Amino acid sequence: MNGQFVISLDFEKIWGVFDVIPSNGDYIENIECVDLVIGKLLELSSKYNIKLTFSTVGFLFNKNKEEFSANTPHELPNYSIKKFDPYPLIKDIKDSEDLDNLHYGYQSLIKIASQDQHEIGTHTYCHYYCLEEGQTIEQFEADLKMAKKVASNLNIKTQSIVFPRNQINNDYLKSCFDNGIIAYRGFEDHAIYRSYSENKPSKLSHRAMRFIDSFVNITGEHTYNLKDLRSSSIVNLPASRFLRPYSKKLKFLEPLKINRVTKAMKKAAKNNELYHLWWHPHNFGTHMEENFEGLEKIFKTFEQLHKSHNFTSSTMTELANRLKK
Length: 325
Ligand SMILES: [Zn+2]
Prior knowledge:
By secondary structure, the chain is an alpha/beta fold. About 40% of the residues lie in helices and about 10% in strands. The protein has a single domain, classed as Glycoside hydrolase/deacetylase (TIM Barrel), CATH 3.20.20. It contains twelve helices and ten strands. The protein starts with a strand and ends with a helix. Zinc ion binds near residues 12, 16, 127 and 164.
């Protein structure tokens, strides 16, 4: 198989950040602009024939508040730390998307679904944390079934998952597979990324290293031999890199960041490996022009590598199907 380029986007709006954003409203603009970002992503990916996988929080399929109430799983996550629970927030959301684009996402989903090349996967129904204390596998399964149900109303068959906060609970993978999920995004295989799986606050040193690693090669290219990914069960398509958003303060580092990505893409193309890039649409919600400028450089590199090495853009499910034993 030729080298493969996968892009997964955690489409979550406020449901992915409500427990971590500053209370002074500083991050709200990023969320408000998500629909705009998605429109631009669809445009740019069409221009370069790139397929995107939108790993979507199931809440975003609800068109109004009645649907939120009707689509309540029969078991809810019983987190010991209550601030992780999004359900109490639902009573305060507005009645429909036209009045509240922070909590709804149906209009963007329709746009994505209308372009056949992309995939809509799941990021769980409620942005579910699989390693948090208090929640159980039964609660997870109820959540996953609801995520599948709301997607099926739009004729979408959910076959891939990205776990919120990269909390991967190995015991839950079988239950995903039993529910028709054939691919998930694992984390980069290095100690500074593995800490995601331990469900402890990342050590400062790991956070700092992850930051530096975005610009300078500390942990390697994180490209993956496709043969090693083959599986008869759920396929792990590990992340290669989080595409860090543009920062005005660090704009002098921008070329290094993009170069770190394109260099690894070249390696993947030449060696028939996987390169899996990911981020959240809300990361592009501010400094949109600069973020898209960087992305277009990445897409141009893909275009060249497609010509020279038949480097192929795939959705998560397409690739998993090819990797199934
Ligand atoms: Zn998320």
